[in-house]
Design brief:
The protein is mainly beta and 380 residues long. It has a single domain (2-379), classed as Porin (Beta Barrel). It is built from 2 helices and 18 strands. The longest helix has 18 residues, at 2-19. It is globular. The relative contact order is 0.15.
Length: 380
């Protein structure tokens, strides 16, 4: 069955590439239903150096994973739509999971979206099934044009790499002969607290009022969240933002507040900011509340190459007490990104550089981690 799934997905992707279409219309047994097949392949070569070891990896870029999906909808009338989303992800060697100890990580189909919805222009949209909670993507508002190379979630590239301390002594083997490596990973030090992810839930979105809209969701394990979103344009200047609150219910004993905003000026300059904090009052051990701040400045040039827009950016992130709330843990990361669109071929080329640094109140002296990545994404 898995081989059949792979063959079907691969065939669809090749057909899309050959036709140059951004989405394929699919014929169904019901003429009232409009169905589109879409997807993307996003592959890259990543080089990492943790101060002790270095290695090349062939990865699936987790900033925008390889995936395939179906959108189906029925236009009941001018104001009412009934629709559904089915989206599957496949990542071999995900860029946030590979490490010096795990160069190859086999992928498998995982469901990203399995939902249906009822959308009305005047009353809003009601969604049911697995999909985005209201707060999902609220830390990732970004108009820089370089999100393919870097987001506020800086651990999406290199997240599985471990910080190395030259004085680190590996623990003795356990009863089963294995050695437990308890070093901190990039993914455990950095987090953009981007809402409650994708869950089985019920979600409601209001219509837009003056560029503003509200969303609220209730999901599995008693999770609840809400978000306020904005999108507008003033004399050519685009502005987007989001502010969210979420409670993890039975899954995690804390709530969080997070948000982001981005501005794109008519001449290409853009600014992005994101931040968030978690309330640990319900945790027995207490500790300092984790928080993060992220900033990016970029420029989009439409005239450098005739093939499509070119986007540059630099960013910086500070994440505090994400993993160990009582050890004054602070991770800092900075990076440089480049994305070149090939508009006629639904393809983007990208390159990124990232440096991670970790400090805490222990005697450890962690080496910085350096990651360089280059790759391409083809969408259909």
């Amino acid at each position: 069955m898995r081989k059949q799934h792979i063959t079907l997905a691969a065939g669809a992707m090749l057909l899309a590439a050959a036709t140059g279409a951004s989405a394929l219309e699919v014929k169904t047994g019901n003429d009232k239903v409009n169905v589109e097949l879409y997807g993307q392949i996003n592959r890259a070569v990543m080089y990492a150096d943790d101060g002790n070891d270095s290695q090349f990896f062939h990865v699936d870029n987790d900033n925008s994973s390889s995936r395939v999906g179906l959108n189906g909808k029925i236009e009941v009338n001018d104001s009412l739509t009934i629709g559904s989303n089915l989206e599957l992800e496949w990542q071999d060697n995900a860029s946030n999971l590979v490490s010096m100890d795990a160069e190859s990580i086999s992928g498998a189909f995982e469901d990203r979206l399995v939902e249906m919805y009822l959308a009305c222009k005047h009353t809003g949209k009601l969604s049911l099934g697995k999909g985005k909670m209201a707060s999902e993507d609220s830390s990732e508002t970004d108009l820089s044009g370089t999100t393919l190379a870097a987001l506020s979630d800086v651990a999406k590239v290199g997240g599985g790499l471990k910080f190395y301390d030259p004085a680190y002594v590996s623990p003795a083997p356990g009863p089963d002969g294995t050695v437990a490596d308890n070093r901190l990973t990039v993914g455990s030090v950095f987090s953009n607290m981007d809402g409650l992810a994708k869950r089985n839930r019920v979600r409601y979105d209001t219509p837009k009022f003056g560029g503003f809209s509200l969303a609220a969701a209730a999901g599995e394990k008693d999770m609840t969240d809400a978000a306020l979103m904005y999108s507008g344009e003033f004399e050519g200047t685009k502005v987007e933002g989001a502010l969210a609150w979420g409670d993890f219910g039975d899954e995690k004993p804390y709530s969080q507040i997070n948000g982001s905003a981005s501005v794109l000026f008519p001449f290409g300059l853009n600014l992005t900011f994101a931040s968030g904090t978690r309330d640990l009052d319900k945790m027995p051990a207490g500790g300092d509340d984790p928080k993060f701040m992220y900033g990016k400045i970029g420029y989009i040039c439409d005239k450098m190459f005739s093939a499509g827009p070119t986007a540059f950016s630099v960013d910086y992130s500070v994440d505090e007490n994400i993993k160990r709330q009582n050890k004054d843990e602070e991770g800092t990361a900075y990076g440089v990104q480049l994305v070149q669109k090939l508009s006629a071929y639904s393809t983007e080329l990208y390159a990124a550089y990232r440096s991670y640094k970790l400090e805490d109140n222990t005697k450890a002296d962690y080496d910085d981690i350096t990651v360089v990545m280059g790759g391409a994404r083809l969408k259909f």
